[in-house]
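Exercise 3.2. Students should predict the tertiary structure of the chain below and write it as structure tokens, then compare their answer with the key that follows.

Predict this chain's 3D structure.
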Amino acid sequence: MSTQLSCNPSGCALTEPRSHHYSHCVHYTQLFRSLREAKGLTLEGLAELAHCHRNTVTNVESGRPVKFKTMADLMAKMGYTAESQELKTLAFLWLEAVSGIPFSHAQTEAAVRKTVAGYRATTRQAARQLETEAINANLTVEQINLLIFALHHPETLSILETVRDLITVSADDTAAEPQLKVAEDSP
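Answer key:
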């Protein structure tokens, strides 16, 4: 099962029989060149169409460092939309090349799926625990909404902790009434 670059008058795409994996054998530079050639454009022709220097197109096709936006702009000038499979494939292969992460390898996909599954399991476990605690505490909807607010505004929690500490200190104070002290009263 090998990935193939299929081109026709309406465009090009990487295809694999019965699989959605991209081949690590196709580099974004090869795909870009094939897409340019499928449109019948020379290096100079694309540069002229895109109003850029020929070296810009050469840099993309030779694998020199270029911003993805540059490639996306060139692709748009060739008629490939942001939603096109060609641009999405090019983006995928470019990201793989610049990051050094072999996204198209089955081992990488398996590792990513395992990590994501672990996060999901942890999230589900935390949600179940939160649900159990909320039920056991007989929280009202208003109390739950206050907790949600506090989660989105963590600074609120530190203020509440300070107030709680002040109340605890006041309750522990066996003196008659808590009094405010001024700086001069300090020893």
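Discussion points: The radius of gyration is 30 Å. The domain at 4-99 is CATH 1.10.260.40 (434 Repressor (Amino-terminal Domain)).
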